[in-house]
Amino acid sequence: MKLNLWMFVVSVLFWTSSVFAAEGGTKILFDQGHNQRFVIEEKGELQLSKLADIMRAQSSEVASSAKPLSDETLKDTTALVISGPFESLRTEEVDAVGRFIERGGRVAVMLHIGPPLAGLLIKLDLDHSNAVLHERKNIIDSDINFRVMDLSSSPLFAGLPQFSIYGGWALDPGKTATAIAKTSPETWADLDGDKKLSTGDAIASFNVVVSGTLGAGSFVVFGDDAIFQNKYLDENNSKLAANLADWLAGR
User: Fold this and answer.
1) Would you identify the CATH topology of the domain 26-248?
2) Is 142 helix (H, G, I), strand (E, B) or coil?
3) What is the DSSP letter of 90?
């Protein structure tokens, strides 16, 4: 009887430690090796420390790296976040990220400006606009800061009626991805550069979040990085951040 009880206790402890290891074994890596101005270690309004805290609160290990992205850098990583780079990823880094996704990794990308991520977007068969979007509906305080309310069914938007972006770019999902969040049909892009809505501009419902798969893994691209900055993590954007944390962890 004592032996059976001891075996039961041991098995429970083993099961508990296994569950803890499974829940705590998720590592989310933030790339900070491409001249990022907004990072997880800083507490300022435009930094990403609150996003990192949300991820940690949901049992993920969160780290950052300024090393070049490579198979070695990503070896023990569950998910990768590339937010707001000002310096382009090199070809070998783009290839390493592609292999990481193909092996089952998850990657979240947020644009501050498009060119530094052009190589990676091409790798994923995506593209971005050359002009920031201007809304005429759901405006917050200027026509480049607005609420996004056209959301597709996605784990990223579970329990979420809307979220806000603060200077975003349109995304082309190509043939490999799906648009999961769009602006209103009244949105316009300043194609002729005259800083006003005119004949040469495009008016449409633009994609601002796209997601897709590559091999065994998945990726999501946001047309704005301010969504997750400390200053802008209101109730809805915080919920989106929590959903993203779950998605990156594979939950």
Assistant:
1) Rossmann fold (3.40.50)
2) strand
3) P
Q: Residue 218 is which amino acid?
A: S
pLDDT tens digit string along 35-94? 999 999 999 999 999 999 999 999 899 999 999 999 999 999 999 999 999 999 999 999
Name the strand (E) or helix (H) holding 109. strand 106-110
Please name the amino acid found at residue 177.
Answer: A
Cβ neighbours of residue 87 under 8 Å, at least 6 residues apart? 34, 35, 116
Q: At what angle do helices 235-248 and 49-57 cross, to 10 degrees?
A: 60
Q: Which residues contact 39 (CB under 8 A, 6 or more apart)?
A: 30, 32, 47, 48, 64
Distances, alpha carbon 234 to alpha carbons 19, 116, 160, 209, 216, in Å: 32, 28, 12, 19, 33
Residue 97 near residue 107, CB atoms below 8 Å: yes
| Rounded Cα–Cα distance for residues 161 and 52 (Å) | 23
